[in-house]
Every structure is written in structure tokens, then in C-alpha cells.
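During the reporting period, our protein records have gained a C-alpha cell line. A sample record is set out beneath this paragraph:
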Amino acid sequence: MKSRILSLRSSRSVHAFLLFGLFVLGGMFLPSGPADAQTPRTSLSGRVLDAASRSPLAEVRVRWTGPGAGETVTDASGRFRFEPAGDGAGTLEALRLGYRPVTSAIGATESEVEILLEAQPIASPLVEVTTTRPSERGSAVAFTRLD
């Protein structure tokens, strides 16, 4: 039976390698700057979806009131983008006829958001439509009399 004995030199190199590895791995979990440092936002984008069906909503007016304020309309896939949006907090508002408007505070580092709009019936006054048959009017052609 043979036993394997590591020399002192190879033991030191193994220990040095392990110690180096711990420093490298440990450094990956340390912040690279001050604790309150934040990555600046270069754009603000997202999607607007129907809250019930989760389907994308096109033609939604989206307004950003933070740094680099602006307004845009969602595309066919419900997507929007503000560029440059700036690197501060602000408010995002989404509006579309037939849906409740949504206003949301957006943090300084958020760059991708999802907005859910809930359907809202549109109240309108009662409209009554009446007609008569052409034969009852005595003619097959419809006439309108404006006085």
C-alpha cells in the first residue's frame, strides 16, 4: 500500500491558491463603490397590458414627468420607450379610452416597467334611433327635410 505525501512546498502553493480564490470570490460580493451609489438610468421602457387578459394594449398614451420628460404612444405589442429618460425619479401616466388611467411613481434606478390597465365602461347619454320603412313614406328613396 502506497501513501501519498505532499511536500511542504506544494502544500503552501495549494493554500496560497485557495486563499487567492477566496479573495477573488469574496470581492465579487463586495460593492464596487459607495453603498448608496446607483447605476444611472439611460432609458425608461416597458409594456402596457390589459389587466384582465394580460394582452398588450396598442395606442396607449404614456407620459413621463421625470428627468427628460416626454410623451409617447404604445406600439402594437404594447411597448413604449423614453430615451434619454435621465437618472432621477418621476411619474409615469398611462391613458387610453375605455380604461382607467394609471399614474405610478418610478424610482431613480428603474428602467423597465409593466403597466396594467383595468377596463372602465364609458358613460354616455341615452341615444334613441328610430326609422320607418320606405314603403310607409311613399317612396323607395329616403329623403331628409331640413328646415
Notes: The chain has a mean pLDDT of 76. Strands lie at 44-50, 61-64, 70-73, 79-82, 90-95, 102-106, 112-117. The longest helix spans residues 8-28. Helices lie at 8-28, 134-137.
